User: Fold these one by one.
Assistant:
Number 1:
Amino acid sequence: MSFDVSDSIRKLTGENEGDLFNRFIFFTRVILIGILLTCLVLYVINALRMLSFPYQIDHMEGFALYEARLLAEGRGIYHDINEYPHMFDVYTPLYLVLCSFLVRLFDVSFFYGRFLSAISAILSGVLVYLIVYKHSSSRFAAAVASLFLFASPYFLVWSGLFRVEMLGLLLSLAGIYIVDRFRASSHVYIAAPLFILALYTKQSFLAAPLASTVYLFLQNKKVGAAFGGIFLAGSGALFLVINHITGGHFYMHVIQGHSYDFNFSYALNLYPMGLSTHIFLFAAAAIYIAAPRLREEFQSCGHLCLYFILSAMIAFLGMSVRYANMNHMIEMIAVSCILTGFLIASAISGSGGSANRKQTPVEPIRKKEYISASQDEGESITLPSILIILLIAQSLIFCTFILTMGSPTGEDAVVRDEVSIYLMSVEGDILSEDMGILVLNDMDLIFQPTSMDALAEMGLLTQVKYMENGTIRAVILNFDIYNDGAVKYRSVIPEMVDAIRRNYHLSTVIGDYHIYESDYEAPAV
C-alpha cells in the first residue's frame, strides 16, 4: 500500500488536478500549506527549546514563578503595597494558582508553567479550526486559519513562556465556541463562567465576553441581558471575595497599580509594529467584516466580528501601559485567523454565502462553476487566487521573522549556572534584573521592573534606601550601569541607577551579567 503525498494534499485543499486553471489554484494552495507547515515545524522546534531551557527567558517569567512558589508555600501574593519590598502583582490569579499546584506536586521549575501554556496554545489552535470548519465545512480554510495562528511570531513566543496569556486565550476561545454553537440554546450560558475564568487569568480578557453579550442582546434581549448579568455578577462576586481575603490589596495590585503607567504614546510606537507584521492577516479579517457580499454571513458570525474589533481596541489600550509588549495582540491575532478562514471559505466557494444555511463541504473547484457563479472567468480566477497569494506573502513574512528570532542556547544555561554559583556566596538581599535565577535558588524577590515607576510616583521606592544602608548586598544587571546608551533602554529607573553608581562597584562580569557589590561597611561596634 503506497502513500501518495499529492493525493493527501488534494484532499486537504479540496482540489483536483485538472485544466490549467485548476492547476494554478491547486499549486498556490499547496505553496501556502507548505509554508505554514514549515512554520509549524519551526514552532515545534522553538517550543521544545523553550520547554527544556531551565532558566528565565522572558523578564516576567521569574516573577510569575515566584508568585506560584509563594502560593505553593501558603503565602499570599497580594500583600500590603506599603510594606517592603513594595512590588505589584499585576495579574489576576488563576494561572498562578494552577501553577502553584504544579510547583507543590513537582518542583520550582519553569517547565510546568510553560507546558501549561503550550497545551493551552495547542487547544486554542484546535478551537480556531473547529469554529471555522463549523461555518464553512472547508477543511482547507479551517486548516489554514489554525496554522496561521501557530505561524504568528508573537503567538510562537508567548505560547512557550511561563505566562498567563495562553490560558486566558484558551478560556476566551472556549467561551466564544460555546456562544457560536449554542447561541439559540440555553447551553449558551456555559460560556459565562469560561469568560469569568479568562478574566481572572488576566484582567484584559474582556473582548470576548463583551462581544458575546452585545451579540446575544441584539439577537434576543432577554438572553443577552441574562448572559451579561451572569458574567458581571460572577466577576463582581469573585472580585469582592478576593479583595476581602487580601484586605483590599487585590484592587491596589491588579487595577490601581496599572493606572500610574498609562500613556497613549507607548501604544502609538508599539501598535503599528504589530499591525505591519500581521498586515495581510488583519486586512483579510477587516475585509471579511466590511465586504458587502459577506454581510449576510456577518450577521451569523456577528460576535466574532465584534470580537475582532473589541480585541483590537483592548490591545491598543493594553499597549498604552509602560513596559507593554506584543502579548496584548494575542487575542486579536487569534480572532483574525478565524475571520481569515471565513474569507477563504467564502472566496473558494465563489460567493459570499450564508452561514445560516446548511452548508456542504467545499467541492473541487471547476472552471464552469466559477463561470456560472460570476459569468466572468477573470473575476472567478481573481478573487481566490489574489487572496491566496496575499496569504502566501503573509506566511513568508511570518517565516522570515521566526527564522531570525533568537532562542536560548546551552551557552546561556552555562552562564546562568555560573551566576547561580555566585549567588551562594552572597549574604543578604540581592536585586536582580533576572528574577528567575533568584527564585530557582530559593531566594525572595525585592525587585519587579514593571512596578518601579509606579512606586516612585507613590513615594514607595525604598529600594534606594536599602541600597545606601547595605541591606541590598549585590545588584545583578544585564548591562553596564556606566553605559548611558544601554541604561536608557533598560527597566532600572534613574533613581536606582544613581544609587547603584554611588554605592556599588563592578565586581565581576559573567556573560551578559554585570554584578555590582555594595561598598557599604558596617560601623564598628
Note: The chain has 25 helices and four strands.
Number 2:
Amino acid sequence: MRKNPTLPLVFASLLLGLYAPGASAADDALELFAGTDGRTQVQTGGRTLGALDVACFDKAWRGAGALAEKGDGPDEQTHLIRMRTPFGAVFKGSIRMAAEGEAAAASLKLTPDKPAELNSLHIAGEFPVANCLGGSWKTDSAEGAFPENLDPDKIHLFGNKAKFLELTLAGGANVRFEFPQPTSVLIQDNRKWSRDFVIRLILAGEGDNGQTYQAGKEYELAFRIASRGGVKLTHDKPLVLVANEEWKPLKTDLRIEPGSALDFSELGFLDAPAGKHGWIQTNAQGQFVFEKRPDKPVRFYGVNFCFSANYMTHEQSDELAERLARLGYNAIRIHHYEGELCQGQPLSTTFNPEKLDQLDYLLAACFKRGIYATTDLYVSRPIKKSELGLPGDGNEGRFKELAHIHGGAFANWKLFSKNLLEHVNPYTRRSWAEEPGLAWICMLNEDNLANHINTLLEIPEWVRAWNAWLAARYETREKLNAAWEGKLKDGQDPAQGNVEMLGNIHSRGDPRQKRSRGPPRRIQPPQLRAHEAVRARRAGLQGAVDRLQRLDQPGRRRVDARALRLRGRPLLHRSPAVHRAGLATAQPLPEHQPHRRRGARRSRQRLRAALRQAVHDHRVQLLRTGALPRRRRDPHRRARRAAGLGRALALRVLA
C-alpha cells in the first residue's frame, strides 16, 4: 500500500491553525448582550471581554449609573432607562441596539429634567486589565498599546474627538466603535482606582467643554459596534417557563401537617398560652424563668418581623402564628412597626385604628399558641420637627440622640409609650403593660451614643450638658487645662459653656479623651495590645467548663480545667465548635439506662473533639495577632504525624 506524503502536512497545518495564539479569538464573532438597564456585555468565544454602561460624573467626580425605567420601548430593540445624578437631576431616555449587517447600530438619547452641570455624561466601557495587556488601541488620529504598568503621570492614554476607536485585546479579540461624526473619546488607565482600562464615549453638552446640559433638551450619541469576526446581538428578555414534559409545576405549601416530621411544636419550647406561668424573670444564674415556676429555666427561640410584615388580615395572622408554633418558635420580635402604626395620623403619638387592630390580633394569635413577644418603644417612627418644638419643616432624623436630653423629644417618646402600653388589646382583654406575653421591651432601639457621636456635636443641649459635666468634674478652667496637658483652646471655659465636644471616642493619644476614672491609659506595645484583643474574646468556653464540672457524677469523666491552658494562657475564648457541641444542654444520666449512657459517651466524644478544635482555633488566633511566637518549620513533622509518634497540638481534656 502506497502512503500519501501530503497527509502529515495537512495534519500539521490543522494543528498550527488550532494552536496559533489569538488565531481563533480574532475571527470569532463579537457577542453583545443588551440589558434593559442600558448595560451591554461584550463577549467572544464564551469569554467576557468587558461591559458598556450609561453613566455620568458630576463636578465633584461623584458617579451615577442608569437603571431600567418602567414600561416598554417602541420596539424590542429599544429599552427605556433613567439616571439620577448625585445632585438630584434626573436624565430619562432610551438606548437602542439593533443589528445592522455584520455590525450593531447603537443610539443613546437622554433628556434632563433640570439643568445639569457634569464633568461627563457618557457610555463607559470597562475592560479588565487581563483582557487588555498585550493589546492596543487606535483612532483616526493616534494609536498606542495598553501599558503593562501604571504610569501615574499618564493615566489618560487618549482624549480627543475621533471618527472611530478600535481596540485589539489580548488573544486578538477586536472591538471597533464607529461614529457618524467626530465624538469625544477618552481612554483611561484606571488601575489607580480599579483593575480595568476604561473608555468613555461622551455626549457633548452646550458649553465649550461639553459640561452643561439644559433642562428638557434631548442629547443623543449614535455609533456602530463592529468586529473583524462580525457581531452577534442578543437582547435581554423575560424568560418564561411553561409546564410541559420537561418542566413540571411544583406546588409549594408552607403549612405544616400536625404530627409530621416537620412538626417541631412538641420539642418543649411551647407552653400555651403565653403567660400561663406568670411573668418572665431571671434567676441568680442569669437564666430566664417563669414567675410561678422559678426552679425551671426556659429558653426562647424566635424570629423578627419588620415594617409591613407586622400588619395582615386576621386569617393570615392565625395561619402565621400556627406555622411559627409548628416550626418550634416560641418568641417573635415586633420591629419597625411604628411608622405604619401612625400612618395617616396628625401626630406621631396617635395610632391608625385599622393598623392597631391588625397588630393586636397578631399578638393575640401568638400569645394563644405560647409565643412570647418583644418590641421597641422607638425605632424609626417619622416625627415632625414641629412636634418636638424645633424650628424648620420636615421630619427630625436625630430623635435617638435628642430623646436623652431634649425636653420635647423625651415628652414625645413618653407620650407614645404611654398611649401604646396603656392601650387595651380587645382580643386579650389586657393592656400591653399588663400582658405577660409581651415579655421584653427595649426603651430606645440602637441608642448607643457612640453610634451618633458626630451628630451630638451639633445639638446645643448636648454641648451644654458636656460643659456642665466638665465644670462639675474639674471645678475650674485651670484644672481642666492641666488635665488636658494645656490643649484647651484660648477662650474656652466650661463655666461659659463653650468647650467643644470631642468627636472621636477611640483616640488614645489625646489627653482630652482619657477615661473619666482611673489613671491615664498606657499605650501598649503591639503584641500586648493584640493579646488583650484576644483576651477580650475569651468568655464563652469558661461557662462550658463550669457546666462540665457539674457532670462529676458516678460513672462520668471529669474535665480538668487546668488542662485548658496553652503555654500558660487560659483557653477561654468563644469557639463555634464548642457551641455546636451543645454543652448547655448536658445533664447527668442515671446508671440504669445503658442506651442513654451510650448516647452520653458519644456526646463526650463530640465534646472532646470540639475542645481540641477550640484549642487549635485559639492558637491560630494568637499566631495571627503576634501574641504567640511561631514555631520553626520541622521537616520531619509530617513523617512523625503519619507514624503516629506525635501531634501538632496535644491537649488532654478528659482524664
Note: The chain has a mean pLDDT of 80.
Number 3:
Amino acid sequence: MKNIRGLHVWLAVVSLTFLGCTNATPVVSPIEGLFGMGETPSPALSFSSPSENSTLPTSSPQISGSCRKGSSVTISGSGLSGAPVVVVCDESGTFSQTIVLTPGFGTKTIEITQADSEGRPLTLERSFNIADVTPPNPPSGLGDGDWFNSTTESPPLSFMDGTDDGIGLDHHEVKIQDHTNGDTDLTTFAIFSSGGKISGLALADSTVYRFIIRAVDKAGNKSAEVASDGWTTDTLAPTPPGAIAMGPIPATFKRTTPTWTFPESTDVGGSGLGGYKIQIRRSSDNSLITGFETGTGDGARGLKLSKSTDFLIGGESYYANIKAFDLAGNESTEVHTPDWIALDCPTNYIAVPARAPFTSLGFCVAKYEMKIQGESDGKQDFSAVSSSVAESRPTGTPWVRINRNQAISKCQELGPGYDLVSNDQWQAIAQNVELQNSNWTEGSVGVGMMYRGHSDNDPGETLSVSGADPYDQTGNTDLQLIGSGKEQRRELTLSNGEKIWDLSGNVTEWVKDDNNDKYGSNEYISTITDLTHPMVIGGRNAKARFGSNGDYTSLPGPQYGGLGKALLDFQDGAIFRGGSHKNGTNAGVFYVDLDDPPTYLTDHSGFRCSLVP
C-alpha cells in the first residue's frame, strides 16, 4: 500500500505538469527509472561559462554548460557570427564549443536551446563583453627640429597619429627626457596633440632633449614608446649686420629692393647662422609695407628682397630694417638701411608714382623742360641744332622751334626707354600734383587756385631756372594776391616729395599722342564734367582724358582754380599741354590745346622727355 500511495502522488505531479503548471527550468521525469529504464536523469540546461556580463579577451570564446545528455544543444543569437551551431550533449551531461562572434568589441549576446524529454524547447540567453587588449601602433614621422631657442618650453612636436585595430585610438601621451644626461625624465606622460609644445620647463643651453611618445586606445592599451631625434637648446642671438651699403635701384623696381652689402653677422649659440630677414617701410610716414621676410643672398654677396608681384610704388621713398637669425630662430637687433626712391631716375629726372588708369608703372620724367645740350639759348632753328642732344637741366632757356615728331626723335635718341612724354603720363603727373595741398595757393586742395607758373607774360619771354626760389625770375612772391602774382609759382611738388618745374607756363609742351577728334566746346577745365562734355572717344570723354581728378565747378572765374583751359573743338592732329608764358588764365597743369598739327613750331612751344626703365 505504501508504494501505491507514492504512485498516486507521482501521478498527481505528472498531471499538474501536463496542465502547464511547470517551473521555468524543465524537470526530467523519474518515471523513466520507475518503468525500469535504469538511467540517471540528466541535469537541466544551463551555462557554465562565460558568466553573465563577464569581460572576455577574445572574439572566439568557449561556451560550456550542463545539458540533457545525448540531446542536441543549439547555439545562436545576435552575437554569433554565421549560422547557428549544434553540439551534442556528452555522457557527462555537459557541452563545450568554441564559437566565433560578430566582429567588433563590446556587448555580445548568444542563446542556447535544448528540447526536454517531451520535446519542449528551453532557451537560455547570456550577454558578455569582448575586451580590446591589443596595444595600438605607435605614432610615426616624429619631427622636433634640430635646434630651439627656449629653455622654458619645448619646440613643437609633429607626428603622424598612431593606429588602432581595436575599438579605436583615444589620445597620445608625451614626456621629455634629457638626452645629454642619461635620458633622465624631465616630465611625466601627459596627453599631447601633434604641433603642441610643453611649457614650464627648466632647460639648459647647449643640451640635447627629446620627446618620448606613445599612443593610447579607448580601452587603455598603450603602444610601444617612440623617441624623437631630439633638439639642442640655443637661446643666444647672432650679432646684427654691420654697416650697410646700398647698391643701385633695379629696373624691376616695383618687385625688388636694391642690393645691400654689409659685414656678415656671427652666430653665438652654436646652431649656425640661418640668414637675414628684411622689413620694408615707407619713409614719409614709417608705415609698414612688408613684414619681416627672409631675403635672398647674404652680406658678402649682396642681400635683397624680391617678389613675383608688385609691392613697391614707383617714385615712393622707402627704407628697410635688416636683422640676422640663426637656425634656432634667435634674431639679432635690427639695422636701418639708407632710404631709397623706388625708381632710379637719371640726373634731373624725377620719379612719378603710377596712377590708374593712366599708368600702371611708375616712370621718370624730366624735372625741367628740355634744353639744347651745350647751348644756353633754346630759341634756335632746328636745322642748326638737329644733331644736338636734348637735356633736362635748370640752366638755359627751353628748346623751342621744334615740331612734335622732332621732339619724339630727340627723346628717343637718349636711349632705351626714353620717349616724349605721353598724354597719359602727363595726366598721371598733373593729377598727382593736383592732390597735394602745397600746390594750392591757400594750402588746401580745392581752395583758392593751383599755382600755374610763369604765365602772365611778364617778362614776355621763356625763362631758365637759376636758383631754388620757386618764383625764380618771375618777379613775384607768395605774399602777393591771387591774380596779382601769387599764382606765378613755377615749382610743383609730387606726392613722393619730388619737385617738377614749369609743368604749367613758360612754354607749352608737346605730348606724343595723335589726336584727330573733337571733344566738345572750348571751356575751362574746372567747368568740364561728364555731363557738359559727354562725347566719348576711345573710351574716354574730355574730363577722363584731359581733366582733373576732383570736381572744381564751384571755383569761379577769372582764375577757374588755375587748372587751365581746354581747347577741345579742334582736330588738327596733335596735342599741347600746360600753356605758355603768354597764356595768362588759360595756362594750367591741365591746359590742353588740340588746335595745332604735329608740324607746328613756335618760339613758345617746347617738350619734356620721360623714361620707363
Note: Confidence is low (pLDDT under 50) at residues 1-42.
